[in-house]
Write a structure and sequence with these properties.
about 200 residues, mainly alpha, Tetracycline Repressor, domain 2, 2 domains, 10 helices, elongated
């Protein structure tokens, strides 16, 4: 029986993803054990059996190891938002866009640890805020186009920022949730009052 084979470029991509994941897992273990600020790229490379240059090939900064690159999920949320019905309440559309993005990715114990690190590390919180500003730049024009009345850019910015906060707070609640609810369940809680008012 013949099996389809990935092209060489596809195999390289799989290998890169595996190495990237290994480096991230090693780094996160070190961050949890020693503290984010105490762990250097050199230490991560040594523990992963790699070189600092190789680590930087996969992650531009230490913060990116925990938070991930800006380019990945922001455009996914934007694309999901564009797909939503034009007459749907904005907060409901944003809720659905975040839920669709979350559904696409696996959620492991390391993701909970990453969220706990983010909550306790100033440089990670700052980097995460920067990421959300990039996301907001992608989402706000789409929301503004769907709002009727005056001052739509300002109103759109408020709605986008409020929903970004709801999304982030749901993730942080998930990291420490004693009931072990899913991210989607807590996202529903975070957006519940918005949607009750049909904002």
């Amino acid at each position: 029986m013949n099996h389809p084979q990935l092209p060489a470029s596809g195999l390289r991509s799989v290998a890169r993803d595996a190495v990237r994941e290994k480096v991230a897992d090693v780094a996160l273990d070190l961050f949890v054990e020693h503290g984010f600020d105490e762990v250097t790229i050199a230490k991560i490379a040594e523990s992963a059996g790699s070189s600092p240059r190789s680590v930087h090939r996969y992650f531009a900064t230490k913060e990116d190891i925990v938070i991930g690159p800006f380019e990945t999920n922001g455009p996914r949320v934007r694309d999901e938002l564009i797909k939503r019905p034009a007459g749907e309440p904005i907060t409901q559309s944003l809720h659905a866009a975040y839920a669709a993005m979350i559904t696409r990715g696996p959620h492991r114990s390391r993701d909970r640890a990453a969220m706990r690190l983010l909550a306790s590390t100033p440089s990670l919180r700052a980097r995460n805020t920067e990421k959300h500003m990039v996301w907001a730049e992608l989402l706000t024009p789409i929301v503004a186009e769907r709002l009727e009345g005056s001052d739509s850019p300002l109103r759109a910015s408020v709605l986008v920022q409020a929903c970004l906060s709801a999304f982030q707070l749901a993730l942080m609640a998930w990291a420490d949730d004693v009931q072990e609810r899913t991210i989607l369940e807590l996202l529903d809680v975070a957006f519940g009052d918005f949607e009750a008012g049909r904002n």
